[in-house]
Amino acid sequence: xxxxxxxxxxxxxxxxxxxVVVFTTGYAVVTYAVKEARxxxxxxxxxxxxxxxxxxxxxxxxxxxxxxxxxxVIHKWQSFPAILHAGLESTxxxxxxxxxxxxxxxxxxxxxxxxxxxxxxxHMQFKKPVMSAGKQVGWMRYVVSTHYQEELWNELQEMxxxxxxxxxxxxxxxxxxxQRIVLNPLQYLIAKLATIVEQQNYNESIAVNNSDAGEFAxxxxxxxxxxxxxxxxxxxxxxxxxYAKEMANYDELTGLxxxxxxxxxxxxxxxxxxxxxxxxxxxxxxxxxxKTLNDSRGHAAGDALLKQVAISLxxxxxxxxxxxxxxxxxxxxxxxxLEDSEEDAANQVHSxxxxxxxxxxxxxTVEGEVYQLTASVGVSTFPKLARTxxxxxxxxxxxxxxxxxxxxxxxxxYQPEMQAAADTRLKMESELRQAISAEExxxxxxxxxxxxxxxxxxxxxxxxxxxxxxxxxxxxxxVAELTGLILPIxxxxxxxxxxxxxxxxxxxxxxxxxxSINISPLQFHQxxxxxxxxxxxxxxxxxxxxxxxxxxxxxxxxxxxxxxDKMHVLKDIGFKVSMDDxxxxxxxLTYLKKLPLNELKIDQSFVxxxxxxxxxxxxxxxxIAMAKNLHLEVVAEGVETESQLRFxxxxxxxxxxxxxxxxxxxxxxxxxxxxxxxxxx
Length: 681
Fold this sequence. Notes:
The protein is of the alpha/beta class. It folds into four domains: about 150 residues, Beta-Lactamase (2-Layer Sandwich); about 45 residues, no CATH class; about 160 residues, 2-Layer Sandwich (Alpha-Beta Plaits), CATH 3.30.70.270; about 250 residues, EAL domain (TIM Barrel, Alpha-Beta Barrel).
């Protein structure tokens, strides 16, 4: 139990008891020490006196060793009850006279030349020089009993028996006094406050004498002031309660209807639509790239833009339409005019979309900077597809994400199959999270070879096997990208790829053997990407020059300058950078010249038909020629036939990857391939 949980009275009692114990113990210790010091001092004085009186006898004994004088000296030693041992010796340490009382034993301690006293096992030992005519002629040693300790303890017990009751009485009186001046006023104050709180009568105050300048009087005045403020706050709260209830239905930032009011309107509209077999629609709006503004200019700029958008929406849409803000940059428009058919409702949506585009097409100025907005919009109709507000919002939200996937700045209607696709995506996301924690992924490696089949390197390919077989990367990679799970997966691929490369080198792989690893766009554009790769590379202990990082065209042209800067940093570390699936994206020669690449990979879609499709053949030949002019290496993917290989060799492509040579394989298989130095002619 904590002491602070006890009452103040109990704490006072404990404090007083503690003080009694501490005071009594301290007093006893100090008294004992002082009296002991006095006894020791008195013993020293007695020995000094004895030694002084007998010094002439000691000199005579050292000089002549008279038997009668020896008996006389021993008799004098015996007259001091405290002396247990006495011994006289010459300067040459020869014994002259020795005395021991009752054959008592003691532990002899050799005192130093400058030491004359020591305490040993409750005995005092003295060493005194014997002087004659200013010259030392011998030593006198004494061992004295410390029997005074028992006497001291008896005296101390008598003192404690007398003082403890007195101290306890004093403590009781002090506690009683403290209770009168501290506890009683405090208990009164606590009881008074408890009554006020119980009755909730904050107009009542605590009685205080105006002439009282004590701390409790000051505390009571402060409590009275606090009670007055509480009552004032209650009055203000009562006055503003109606206003608060009204504002509970509106978004604080924009003044638009909030989710609560929107749901109320939806319940009413859905009920009317269901009873009268009328049709309507809900538009779920998400502003495109709003996060960029928030991240670059701050939340204040983002809030200012949202306010302007809200004002425009309220101005352009009809009063019967409910315009609401759900949060962030998400707005909802509930059509308040019900149509006779679902087709009419769809036409109404097209009309609403024209208005929305008109609203967003105008320029918005925030902190002196002009912004042009677009939006992704999801549409759900009712009552055929949805009969509750939650269903309607969920369907429109699903459709909105489909609009984003379609390239943004567009709108999509909800269809049942869209919900099925969303459920599949959610299931895939859940299974992906499980796969990450359970380490269900594997890395396969597809060799990259020259025209003779000599293995030059390999590309790491991610595989995911479940009980029912392998899940295609084309199915799970997009979901991983969309949910951000590609980040831990990408780190796992880099780490395991680097460690596998280190193992191959340890097993004697060619020092020029290289490993290509695909980098996802989200992974590449992370601020920590370069530092993460460096740390993983350092952990594995492999050289960066043997690693090729493959990026896509779309990734490269997004924020081109930042991409160029990051690629230069990676190349400075030692990595090679390759553009994967070249020819399928949006790269222009201008971008290609700017990007610090080492390699181009011809997409397998061109290689597959180059021996039957003249356009693909010309494009492949052009890519190879262009790469050579830019001093870039070329890797052809998807080589499956000898005719494809001959065409590529004829146009001086030097590196190949495809089923004609090898399928993707597990690390152990590639290890055997490397150790066998297999050559395909």
